[in-house]
Amino acid sequence: MIRNVLSIAGSDPSGGAGIQADLKTFSARGTFGMAVLTALTAQNTVGVTGVHLVPPAFVAEQIHAIFADIRVDAVKIGMIANAEIAEVVADVLRPYHDNLPIVLDPVMVAKGGASLLASDAIEILIRRLIPMSTLVTPNLPEAAALLGEAMAVDRAGMAEQAERLLRLGPKAALIKGGHLEGAESPDVLAESTGLHWFEGTRVSTQNTHGTGCTLSSAIAAELAKGAPLAESVAIAKVYLAGAIAAAGTLSVGNGHGPVQHFHALWASEQQPS
Q: Which is nearest to 232 in space by CA: 181, 169, 187?
């Protein structure tokens, strides 16, 4: 059976991040993707020039429409923009979350530096959405913002913050180490059973637009297919590493380009530029 995965997130018209990246990832991982829009953005690989929020009641209506008709096997939550949208997302998902994998990627800042989350929404994330999540996947600055602390700068700090995030109520927390200095880019997964490290070598490329969206969506797809959490993270990281490695086969924009979501499917077409 092909699994159905729902993304609740914002739109990136340039196709590298947001809903567009989520749908590409779901498809690449062999699942059927669905999308509820929380915001429209005007952006490209260079930056974000505008954000138009979807009214919270219409966000709720979209989610209700999906669950009223379609079996949902996992949910990925990305950009929620403000407190009102965060509240309605939590309200609508509340009846389902006990038996539904939910991956929360707390999108706060775009790759180019634009803010994508109002400050008043952080409290709703902490109080309502994080506790109902199977997994929360912040990068280092996002983890620091959620905890009200300085950003971790080494593995010990990452481990401590991952354990503190776990106390906020999710079943697990994955802190991504892409902002660390050095050649390595490790991630750490905190579960009730302990910590699990996922090693990674930093790839020298500016084509990293949408990597957080892609990783969280790949994890959601694997969870939808029934894989255990740590295995889902491991599979998703291998998939993302391949997508980053093949990003040079694309020619999209002049800034932070997208990853190649279909690197495993388009192998015969890929010629490095």
A: 187
257, 207 contact by CB (below 8 A): yes
Residue at 174 is within a domain: yes
- Whether the model clears a pTM of 0.90, i.e. scores above it, the answer is yes
Residue 211 annotated among the catalytic residues of the structure: yes
Range of the domain at 100: 4-262
| Domain annotation covers residue 229 | yes
- Cβ partners under 8 Å of residue 145, min gap 6: 108, 122, 138
Indicate the number of domains in the chain.
1
pLDDT tens across 222-247, in order? Answer: 999 999 999 999 999 999 999 999 99
- Tell me whether residue 273 is in a domain: no
Active site residue 25: no
Q: Is 248 a catalytic residue?
A: no
Assess whether 237 carries a catalytic annotation.
no
Which candidate, 25, 234, 14, places its Cα nearest to that of 6?
A: 25
CATH number at residue 12: 3.40.1190.20
CA of 271: how far to CAs of 67, 212, 259, in Å?
A: 42, 25, 15
